[in-house]
Structure formats: structure tokens, C-alpha cells
Amino acid sequence: MSGGPTPPVAGLAVVPSPPRRPVLALSSFGTRLFAALTVVVVGCAVSAWLVASALAPGIFHDHLGQAGIDQDSNEAAHVETAFTVAIVSAWGLAVAIAVLLALVVSWYLTRRVQRSVTAMTSTTADIAGGRYDSRIHSPGLGREFDELADSVNELARRLDATENTRRRMLADLGHEMRTPIATLDSYLEAVDDGVRDFDDDTRHVLRSATKRLERLAADIVDVSNADEHHTRLQPVSTTTGDLVSTAVSAAREHYEKKNVELRARITNSVAVTVDADRLGQVLGNLLSNALRHSSAGGVVTITSTRVRPHVVSIIVSDSGDGIAHEHLGHLFDRFYRVDAARDRAAGGSGIGLTISRALVEAHGGRIRAHSGGVGEGAQFTVDLPIRK
Fold this sequence. Notes:
Blueprint: H1 23-26, H2 29-66, H3 74-128, H4 143-193, H5 200-227, E1 236-239, H6 240-258, E2 261-266, E3 271-274, H7 276-292, E4 299-308, E5 311-318, H8 325-328, H9 340-346, H10 352-362, E6 366-370, E7 378-385
Parallel strand pairs: 2-4
Antiparallel strand pairs: 1-3, 4-5, 5-7, 6-7
């Protein structure tokens, strides 16, 4: 019989066995750390013993010669025996105690580190499995471990917030799309059944529904581009006064229909280089948001003022519903609504402020919100850099 390898059977794939991992690689971090510390401690003790054994006899005999004692005499032999016994006993006991204490301390530290690493591993595995409420307690092993625990906890918090936003986004998208789709379906069915004629009123309703879907799709594309930093700007030279005037003119009719007063105060009209259409979109979003949360008889004011030598601010303030303090930090999150039912009824998608923030930041500026509380109105400030 041939002693060579058995050829593979036709039709069967030969699956190579996974490579065997070293035994040390399969052990825990704590075991390897303790083993390394043990090697270091024992190595130090053996090294000290070897050094002492090599140097001590020569030094001892030198001192005997300096004392005038003949190295071949009985006195020298007795003294050398006594010295050897004392050194071996004392040094051996000292080394044994030192090694024992070092191993105990190493075992304790290894256990602490291993416990912390195990807790972090378990928590990160829970987070990877979708349990974003998992948190790591401070292990008390030093600043680096505390910072690592804080970073993991912050990661879990952000993932939790992102997951909540995703769920809310899907629910809101479903709600936003359901209404125009239901309108389209019901009107088309009525036309097919002969209940309604395909007249101007029907066409107007159908077009309004399709435009609402188109606007929702455009908003989603805009916020996705903003998140991925794909927003393209076409800067032109203009002034903040022109930006404010254009935004006011575009929103005036809607304000008059709701009987809300819109005031424009241009304290300083500053020359800026921006994408006028994109900034107009930002101001339009802010004015629409202010109108949506203002009752008839309310007042909305848009102001342009230079606050610093290189910064100009455009402020939109209203006397409307106001914003509770706990909502201020989430206003610019995607699909976030302070009052979901009221905002849906008013037609808000919850994306406008997110897009506004992305567009302002693309210009190198920032946008922020302030409110004294519910019923105290709100103020949105757009800070833009002044560049020559």
C-alpha cells in the first residue's frame, strides 16, 4: 500500500481544517498578565541570586585580606562558613518573602484588571447586540480605564439616541406618506367609480398630494446629503439685508392668511458671500416654523445685526408657543418634534431644522435656538462669518 496522502473523492470538496491557535492565545488576558508578572518576579530573584553569588565571595575574601586574616587558616574557614550560612538564610528568606509579596500583589492587580476587562467585554458585546442601555461602571484602575469606560458609555448613549431617531423616523415617514397616498387612492377610486369627475378640483387635490410626496422625498434627499457632506454651494456676493428682504417677501402672503404680523428689522446690512438660494431656504424654514407655532394676532420678527467684527447674525423671533428646556437640545435632530400631534396637523415633517443646521454649517456658521419656556416664544439665531 502507498504511504502517500489519500486523494480527494470526486465530487466532494476538501475543507481545510482551521489553523490551531497557540495555547497561550486561548488563555485569558488576566492569566497571561499574571504569568508575565510571575516570570518577571522570578527572573529578578534569580538574577539577584546569581549576581550575589558571583560578587559576594570575591568581596568577602578581599575584606579578609585587608583584615590580615590568612585565607587558608581555620579562622578564615570558620568566618566564611558563618558568612555563607547567614547570607544564604537571610537572602533566601528575603527573596522568598519578596517573591511571595510580589506574586500576591500581581495576582490582586491581575484580578482587578481581568474583572474590568471582562465587564467591558461583556458590556460592549451587549451594545453590539442592540442593548444600548448597557453601561460600564468606573473600574477605578486609573485615568485611562475611566476614559475608556466613559467613551464606551457615550458610544452606547449615541447609538441609543440614533436607534430611537431611526424608529421615530420610520414611524413619521410612514405617517407622512400615508396621508397623501390615501388621498391619491381615494380620489382615483372615486374617479374610476364615477363618483367624482376628473375636473379642476380633483386635479388640484391630486397635484397637492403628489407635491407633498415630492417635497417629503426632497427633504429626505437634502438631509441625507447634508449628513454625508454632499451639499454643494454656489456662493455669490450679496447682503444680509437682501437675504432678509427676499425671505420676508416670500413668506408675507402666508403670514397674512393666518393674520400673523411679520416684521423685518435690518440693523446692519452686511456684505456676505453665500449661496443665496440655500440661505433663503434656511430663512424660509425658520419663518415657516415660526408661523406654524404662532397664533392669529402673533408677531414674528426677523432681524439682521452685526454682533462681532467678523460675524453677522440673522435672528428670527416669535411670540408663539415657546419651547420647553428639555427640547432645546434636540430641535435640530432629524424628525424630532416638540409636539408630534400638533406638528403633524400643521404639516411639519421634522426635517426642516436639521436641513437648516446643515446648510448653515456648510457656510462655516452656526445656528442655535433659545426660548424662555412654554408660552414664552422662541428665538432662532443664524451666525454667519463675514469674509472679504
